[in-house]
Amino acid sequence: MYIGKYGCRIAAITVLSFFFVSVQAADLRTPAVMDKLVRLPMKSIALSTPVDSGNLLFSDSPEYAERDGMLYSDIVRGDSRMYFYHVNQTDKLKKFVVVASNTEEKPVDIYVHGSWHSRPSTDYYAVGRELSQIYYKEHRNERKITVPAGGTVLLDEGLNNVSVLPDQLFSGIVDFRVDGAAQISSVMMPFDEDPHEFMKRAFLVSSDDVKLRGRFKGKDRLLKTVVPYMPADGIAYIRLADGVTDLFLKGPDILDNRPSENVGNYGVDYTVLVNTKGKGAVHLYFNPIGGEYSGVVEVSRRQKNSSTDVKRVDLPRNGRSMGYNDAYAMEYVDTFKAGDKITIHFMPPGAANLPVQYIFVPDSVSKKVIKEVTEEENKIKALTAAAVNLHASQNPTNPEHSDMQASDHATPPIRLLDGEKTR
Questions:
Q1: What's the pTM?
Q2: Is 197 helix (H, G, I), strand (E, B) or coil?
Q3: How many Å apart are CA 239 and CA 229, to the nearest integer?
Q4: In this structure, what DSSP letter does residue 167 have?
Q5: Residues 6 or more apart whose Cβ sits within 8 Å of residue 15
Q6: What Å distances lie between residue 379 and 26, 29, 282, 350, 386, CA to CA?
Q7: 174 with 98: CB under 8 angstroms?
Q8: Which of 105, 173, 242, 330 could form a disulfide with 34 if both were Cys (CB 3.0 to 4.6 A apart)?
């Protein structure tokens, strides 16, 4: 059927009219609202001196592993974490395992608190994000492993069964405690080989130019606000992993025999305690000022009645990543009442860019901005609607002409030939 030019105009006007009616009012998550909020003046929230605990073994150099062997290895005692992040830069099927070796003359006990790993992928942001998601969502039962004198064990047998294709990134976390001392290694090796036999001839792999690996004190970092945040203070922010107000971890790379710095504090589990006072609601936003980011944050709030609410939020909620070439990117996280005690829990994921900011916005400020954005959108809608109506008045529809055109081009009825039967 041919509708004709007047029928097309009717359809276009109808669609535009529906669009104007169906547009939702601005709210806390409206991009235009967040874009205005992040550009408003804001002040920094002072934090206490960090309390760092535990050992962090960070294995990210060489990031693109071209040879089998120990990508990083060091001797640790006590509470520790191995965080590995490597790409299989060979043309063969590989696997990445975490091996504990005992060089002592007596057995050593290791208590594995948990082990988590992403799925291998060529999408680096997906790998970092998935690892953060499962780390905060999936809790593991502690298990004891005994390493015999002069022997080796895998801290996670499951890693032995994960095949990594060429050009795929693989990342994982193992949290554990060593009673005594043990050498812990992140290893890339052929997928079909036995890791215990391989370790008998494994050699150390040199780092790349970035040299992002080492042993650092501070697998966990605790920060607290010096004074409570109040809505009367206006918009305020906490900046993390910038290397200035929140210093990067430093430690040795014993394989290269050099000092190392964890630029970005990757693999550090942050706990930020924020006390608040005053009245009114406060809205929490995330701002990746360092560049493209994909990860997770866990926020818990303890209310005055001592009840606790925990929420995990993907950053961003929708889409693969956020903040690409946009230091003003924002994601709404949560809303709480002034007087609540807030805990921000997050770990800088691999591939993500640092630093980041958590921004606190008083409800009074957000309402003002939402009102401004709503008024601006209403003006645009009114102007556009007026333009559509003007166009319609200058080009009146002619239903009879439209019907005639439709009739002229209608498909004629089908008639059976004499003697023909339908099937």
A1: 0.85
A2: helix
A3: 15
A4: T
A5: none
A6: 13, 20, 29, 44, 11
A7: yes
A8: 330
